[in-house]
From TrEMBL:
It comes from the Bacteria. Pfam families: GatB_N, GatB_Yqey. This is Aspartyl/glutamyl-tRNA(Asn/Gln) amidotransferase subunit B. NCBIfam families: gatB, PRK05477.1-2, PRK05477.1-3, PRK05477.1-4. Belongs to the GatB/GatE family. GatB subfamily. Residues 344-491 form the Asn/Gln amidotransferase domain. One of its GO terms (molecular function) is asparaginyl-tRNA synthase (glutamine-hydrolyzing) activity. It comes from Nocardioides currus. Heterotrimer of A, B and C subunits. Allows the formation of correctly charged Asn-tRNA(Asn) or Gln-tRNA(Gln) through the transamidation of misacylated Asp-tRNA(Asn) or Glu-tRNA(Gln) in organisms which lack either or both of asparaginyl-tRNA or glutaminyl-tRNA synthetases. The reaction takes place in the presence of glutamine and ATP through an activated phospho-Asp-tRNA(Asn) or phospho-Glu-tRNA(Gln). InterPro entries: Asn/Gln-tRNA_amidoTrfase_suB/E, Asn/Gln-tRNA_Trfase_suB/E_cat, Asn/Gln_amidotransferase, Asn/Gln_tRNA_amidoTrase-B-like, GatB, GatB_Yqey_C_2, Gln-tRNA_amidoTrfase_suB_CS, Gln_synth/guanido_kin_cat_dom. Keywords: ATP-binding, Ligase, Nucleotide-binding, Protein biosynthesis, Transferase. GO terms for biological process: glutaminyl-tRNAGln biosynthesis via transamidation; translation. It catalyses: L-aspartyl-tRNA(Asn) + L-glutamine + ATP + H2O = L-asparaginyl-tRNA(Asn) + L-glutamate + ADP + phosphate + 2 H(+); L-glutamyl-tRNA(Gln) + L-glutamine + ATP + H2O = L-glutaminyl-tRNA(Gln) + L-glutamate + ADP + phosphate + H(+).
Length: 492
């Protein structure tokens, strides 16, 4: 159903559940390493494999990280909370239950303000609770990579037991046509906050941060909530936006056709931009939650909570607004900087001595282009903020121009050394010696007598053609300013 028709007939309601893998050294309830990758099932023990008699112990660092996340989201921090068993059978959780929190989360009643196109939406946080991640299933054979049609399945339990914080919003209503953008902006802003806290790498491509998108539609103006679907494990900001938009259009088409929405989980397909049915969505009672008998309650003291509050960094959104003003960036310039993933790199480059405009110029032109062309994260190009400062210093000193600087960056990508070493090895330094420049100027005048006559007649602007000829002869390494001076000295 066309998006505009959806908005004319229905009001959307969003709900977002974001799972954050913490960067603790060990898992949530055992001493196994909480690292990404590795030989399948090498990072396991009787506890995370759920073997009989194995007893869990709560990871104190994970509790600390949970509290810091809750404080940053303006949540209340429970004085007393406990874990529960979420019972279900699925091969990626060998205990047949997940140790999570149910009616007693460690963080609750928070909020985050999100701005979209100049309008602020308050996203209310219902809860942020601690739990453990599941293992990873690999379905071999078949066309889709899913269990249906697969020849057999393998399970890697290295991820089982890694600490997770699940952040759950209350229904977000009133966003209307901006609902997809609000969802994207919330997840992006939440990721920025998590990274600033230093509690997770929050890399969506590695599953450190995963978003589940809940959506429902209700008749326009009814003030009710419709039946929701939950699109699982959406792994990019753009996909969050696309999944919301697609589900709004899919729901509306079903409702307009007289059908009803099935409460279910759905899978997002990045290649086709659609969702497909997963399984009927269970309600809380279906999981038969009950308090975890093998773990004592968690009771963070108020003194500890306030101590952790003092460790919170500046809110990333407020920090961006402050730095934008200090740097003199327009809204569009700042938006492009953030969108390119270069905000932190530009900040470090300015702190290392570059001007805001020069830092932004190199990271958003040369470096962002290279990252885009090669499909590489901009931070993984092998160029540091110190390198950018050094290149700009060579330009300011008259040793390079922008064209030659791009060749220096090529050398940096290839690991050829420092900017100064690359300039020396490649012979890139600008020539300002009057002897060499004078010869090139004489050659240009001799080759372009008509242009020389125009300059003699007072048409100084024509000097640009001779400057270009000199630059070409000297492979771009001439000091253009000095070349102009020599041309005018000889012809005027």
């Amino acid at each position: 159903m066309p998006f505009d028709d959806v908005l004319a007939a229905y009001d959307p309601a969003l709900g977002l559940e974001v799972h954050v893998e913490l960067n603790t050294a060990s898992k949530m309830f055992c001493g196994c390493p909480a690292t990404f990758g590795g030989e399948p099932n090498a990072g396991t023990c009787p506890t995370c494999l759920g073997l009989p008699g194995a007893m869990p112990v709560v990871n104190g660092k994970a509790v600390e990280s949970a509290i810091r996340i809750g404080l940053a989201l303006n949540c209340e921090i429970a004085e007393w909370c406990r874990f529960a068993r979420k019972n279900y059978f699925y091969p990626d959780m060998p205990k047949n239950f997940q140790t999570s929190q149910y009616d007693e989360p460690i963080c609750f009643d928070g909020w985050m303000d999100v701005e979209v196109d100049g309008e602020t939406f308050r996203v209310e946080i219902e809860r942020a609770h601690m739990e453990e991640d599941t293992g990873k299933s690999l379905h071999v054979g078949g066309a889709t990579g899913r269990i249906h049609g697969a020849d057999y399945s393998l399970v890697d339990y290295n991820r089982a037991g890694i600490p997770l914080i699940e952040i759950v919003t209350r229904p977000i209503q009133g966003a209307g046509e901006k609902a997809p953008e609000v969802a994207k902006a919330y997840v992006a802003q939440l990721r920025d906050l998590i990274v600033a806290l230093g509690v997770s790498e929050a890399r969506m491509d590695q599953g450190n941060l995963r978003a589940d998108v809940n959506l429902s539609l209700a008749p326009k103006g009814s003030g009710t909530l419709g039946t929701r679907t939950e699109t699982k494990n959406v792994n990019s900001f753009r996909s969050v936006e696309r999944a919301v938009r697609y589900e709004m259009q899919r729901h509306a088409a079903i409702l307009d056709g007289g059908g009803s929405i099935l409460q279910e989980t759905r899978h997002w397909h990045e290649d086709t931009g659609i969702t497909t049915s997963g399984r009927e969505k269970s309600d809380a009672e279906d999981y038969r939650y009950f308090p975890e008998p093998d773990l004592v309650p968690v009771a963070p003291s108020r003194e500890w909570v306030e101590e952790l509050r003092g460790t919170l960094p500046e809110n990333p959104t407020a920090k961006r607004a402050r730095l934008q003003q200090e740097w003199g960036f327009t809204d569009l310039e700042m938006r492009d900087t953030v969108g390119a993933g270069a905000f932190g790199l530009v900040e470090e480059t300015i702190a290392a001595g570059a001007t805001p405009q020069s830092a932004r110029k190199w990271w958003l032109s040369e470096l962002a282009r290279r990252a885009n062309d090669t499909g590489t994260d901009i931070a993984a190009l092998g160029v540091t903020p110190a390198d950018v400062v050094a290149v700009q210093a060579l330009i300011d000193a008259g040793s390079l121009n922008d064209k030659l600087a791009r060749q220096v960056f090529e050398g940096l990508y290839a690991g050829e050394g420092t900017p100064a070493e690359i300039v020396a090895a490649r012979g890139l330094a600008i020539v300002s010696d009057d002897g060499a420049l004078g010869t090139a100027v004489d050659n240009a005048i001799a080759a372009n007598p008509d242009v020389a006559d125009k300059i003699r007649d007072g048409k100084v602007a024509a000097a640009g053609a001779l400057i270009g000829a000199v630059m070409k002869e000297m492979r771009g390494q001439a000091d253009a300013g000095r070349v102009r001076e020599l041309i005018l000295e000889k012809l005027t």
